[in-house]
Amino acid sequence: MKLRNKRVLVTGAAGSLGPQFVRSLRTRECSVVMVDNLSGKSTDVPPGVEFVHDDFGKLDARPELLDGVDVIIHLAANTSVVDASENPVDDFKNNVVNTIALLETLRHRAAKPRLLYASTALAMGNQGDQPIFDESSVPRPTSFYGLSKLAGEYYCRMYRSTYGMPIEVVRFFNIYGPGQRKYVLYDILRKLSENGKELKMLGTGEEARDFIYIQDAIDGAFLILEHEKNGTYNVGLGKKTKIKELVDVILKSLNLEDVAVTFSGSSWKGDVKGNCADITRLKALGFAQKTTLEEGVKKLIAWIREKDLLPL
Fold it and tell me: Helices 98-107 and 144-163 sit at what angle, rounded to 10 degrees?
């Protein structure tokens, strides 16, 4: 199924990823319905799309919104690991109960849109210093957020196998880029905007992540949708970058020298020492990286400056 000219509903569409997904869909001449309760307080609504201010779990009360919809990209979730740890019940309601409500709504429709469920590498948990995960690796979440997203994965798979629903489960690794106002890259840039001479970081700096630029992640997700495999896919680059290496890239991009960088040696509870995606399955669909980390960091910095979010 080619995405061009399709009608697509995006949940969590005003969050850090949603507007970029919507803009990419618009370049494919898709008609787009954005659904978001604005709990993330973002109001980034690209022109030419329909916006619905509501919880995605309440779509059973708004069946007309699903009329003619070919694809649902399900991004809506509580994505804060800290908030999930402090309020695991709310996290469960947002990420699991509402997802089940959406699945139930779709199950009872005669025409079932293809669903893309956005999961996370944190579902895999903390499994050593430098693990590489393929889609068959055993998840061992170490945070409530990772646990709730994994539960959503399992419900999607069960609805797919039990009711024959067209569902793709996409496990995103560490996405970064324009639109992002949190997570490690933005946090580093925020700290440097406050003090360009000293940077205090959690952890040891040896922790590694698989960082993927947002447009590359979107391209990977669209490939999965278009190939209609009804499966589970990792979306990353299959490359490890240590946090201390990421810091070096950011400092170079800002032309900052003589910054005293220190690491505390400890991190927040549930943090992982490392993760990296095996993307053999994704590459088989034709996926290839287009944006390097150095290029992506520069694009993120340019966006932050354009929006005047930080004094960089």
Answer: 10
